[in-house]
Amino acid sequence: MTRYVIRRILWALVLFVVVTFVSYVIFFLIPADPVKLFAGRQATPEDMARAAAFYGLDQPFYVQYWKFLSRLVTHGVIGEKALGFSFVNRQWIASGVQSRAPVTASLVLGGAVMWMILAVPIGIVSALRPRSLIDRGATVFVLIGISAHPVFLALIFLYIFGYKLHMFPIGSYADFFNPPPGQAGGPLQWAWHMFLPWCTFAILFAALYVRMIRASVIETMNEDYVRTARAKGAPEWVVMRSHILRNALLPIVTMLGMDIALGLGGAVFTESVYSLPGLGQWAVQSLETFDLPVTMGVVVFATTAVLVVNVIVDVLYAVIDPRIKLA
Amino acid sequence: MADDLLVVEGLKKHFPVTRGIIFQRQVAAVKAVDGVSFTVKRGETLGVVGESGCGKSTMARCIMRLIEPTAGSVVFDGREITGLSRHELRPIRREMMMVFQDPYASLNPRKRVGAIVGEALEVHKIGTATETKRRVQELLEIVGLNPEHYNRFPHEFSGGQRQRIGVARALAINPKLIVCDEPVSALDVSVQAQILNLLKDLQKEFGLTYVFIAHDLNVVRHISDRVLVMYLGHAVEVATRDALYHHPRHPYTGALLSAVPVPNPELARARQQILLEGDVPSPLNPPSGCWFHPRCPRHHPGVCDVREPQLVAAAGDHRVACHFPLERWPMNAAEMAAPAASASTGAGTATGAP
Amino acid sequence: MALLDVRDLHTTFRTDDGLVKAVDGVSFTVEPGQTLGIVGESGSGKSVTCLTIMGLNDRRSAITSGQALFKGADLLAMPKNQLRALRGNEISMIFQDPMTSLNPVHTIGRQLVEAVHLHQDVSRSSARSQSLDVLKAVGIPNAERRIDDYPHQFSGGMRQRVMIAMALINHPDLLIADEPTTALDVTTQAQILKLMDTLQKEYGSAIVMITHDLGVVAEIADDVVVMYGAQVVERATAEELFARPSMPYTWGLLGSLPRIDHDVERLAQIPGTPPSLLNPPPGCRFHPRCTYAMSICQSEQPPLASATGSETHLSRCHLDPATRLTEIKKLESGHFAEVT
Lengths: 327, 354, 340
Fold this sequence. Notes:
The complex is a heterotrimer of chains A (327), B (354) and C (340). Chain A has 327 residues and is mainly alpha-helical. Chain A has 14 helices and no strands.
């Protein structure tokens, strides 16, 4: 097991370097000149040269990349200065991540809870009663969930429930713990503000998971060991709990880990429409303003999240399924 | 000898087991086949019998070079084929074909039957399209199927019919050798009889040579001229069919024979079965000395757990790899366990049966 | 009184293609402590018969009629929870593939304890010690350590022993075994059959053994039922069946077996394929494949009747007893293939 984890961590480091490097390359392939932007419209060539030197943009990209990496390592990955600071608003990126990550996390984790609450019962019931009305209804729900774009859904929800019915606030975020003075805060406000975003974010995943859970439960139901359990005289609820669900939901648990990790990278559409100051929204802004350090900061955070969760999920799978032996 | 179609010498197939963080190094090997030697004469059927894990399927694939052997030599029709490149091997592949166990898995469900049977002809560029079609229909008829079903898909046929398609496929380019890997194990008894009769008829008609792998001793007895018994990757006994079934000399063969259920209640009740203890050991960690010794009713400590027996002649053409081969048959477990009359010599040769 | 008395059992499945008659009027009895062998090829209905008796068919698609009297009480008519109380307790069933019949994510100890707790109101330690006892009884070495192992850590033969242990832990009166050794090697099969024989004597259970292997039937069965096309076509004691098989299908079955004890030049071949249960042939189900078929066979189904004069030996065939006896004599006893 330890050998496996060590090997995975080494690979994760390699992947981290590859991903961040590729991000750098892509940034520099964009046909626009950030220096001009920062220097301002009336910039003279000397101004531009000074600006370039100031931002470190006068050096070739691989040198910049090397600087980025070494800064990451020397300041400790989560240190205050590790990610450099933003071109646009001259703020340490680490603190930006610190204030925005909880927003994204609220959205993603809350959304995950919501989609599981939706998907698990619907998936199970559809599997138990295939081709019934419930199953067909679930299929329609799945189709809508997969096809409807989060932006589209978000706007509809906001219009109906926010604007017309005044049931929910129209966007913005309420901090759970320490609301800035003058703004709404606390758990209730937080949940109230997050409810529509959660629904929007969750629908797509709920649809996907209903399909997966249904397929997994149907497959498990037909396994021989379920028949053995019934032959032992087990009542249906025991068969369902200990034999069918225990096995059918195994692969779902690991998928959940992965999807949450991906979500942490930035649920861009949902954050944009609901004006939630999270990482996704920040990343989009940074691309529009050519704020490279911010882009890289979000990339680092997201990549790390995905790689770490990946390893955890693989190990978790080996823990909950005794048949798996890690190579 | 000129009439030996297949000569296998010291065939080995080891699957490596690797460990390591960055650089994988081999720490152990699964010795699926560990030194098997035998010959098959032209026109005869060699039955290969053994239980799960004995390596018979792996060995079959090594002979056909579907898997690369780790060591050993395979001489087919006078030519050594283990070292040949893919290009050199191609013409030889026309002469040896295989029939597989699972009639449901060995036919491509997306291809029509005619295409499946004619594939070999196409690959080796034999004949025009019309000639191929005619040949395929001829083959379908030979195996007892309706040639008009040329355009049907495999799922439209029953298990037995699918196996016939597999046989037709194997016959398509007139091979010299057909390796049958448990071709009737997945079939019902009445269908099994049809396929076995078909195989025997075809052998007579086309002068085919078979290597027939099975775990069912009844089936092997019915179809084989000579029999090879395998255990844990080794050949433990080779003999003509009658010699093996009338007087097996290896205790494992004896146990196998006594374990086969016979459809005769009086006989079943009267005989004393030799029941082996435990399970087949893992090929990752085979026992020292004789591979069968932990389960052998005849095990002599100090000899059997120390020296590996060699496959040597016990009586004429009857070869056995045992330090204390059975002197007579039938024997029950108690008689087997009694100290052997003859002690073994250095190479483990046994005396001939009196 | 017979332990199990199955009377005119019918099971039909609703499928997309129509109604499939998987069991069509099957009757047999099992005496306490005896072994009944049910022999047939795939599609003969032998497995479905026993699944019906146990109530393990898919409730939505299976239509059942008839009676299955277990100690006098009809299993098919009793309320579901009463049947569940009997399952795994007084009637147990084991299945063919030990690889897939055990839940891979629970230890075998847990699965055994579950079997105990479903029917006995005892403490966990008592359940565990019963599990250990039964594991030892089925010959699992190192039972104390292996009870906490997972199914994939056992070999096929060991897994089947665990299944048998799980079936016997509550000391059932009847054990139904659906092809328990088909997926095992021949030496392992011999071990398992011997084990079942020993345990039967020890626990006094009756056994219903479903198999396609006539050799296995000869080894352990006291009585035999031969099934074809969802019906019983012959019923006899084991001795009677092998000495005087009375209908063409049985002759064909016996003749198509390659034998280890004597030479058979050419195996008897039953031409054709097993009948469709969706549209069974009219009259006798076997007539399209029968070399002895007469015109009456195409229109009228023969009843199950005695041909040899023995009360216990019934067969379903239109051929008159005299002809059948001559046929039996023609084919030497034990050899039913055409010997050229």
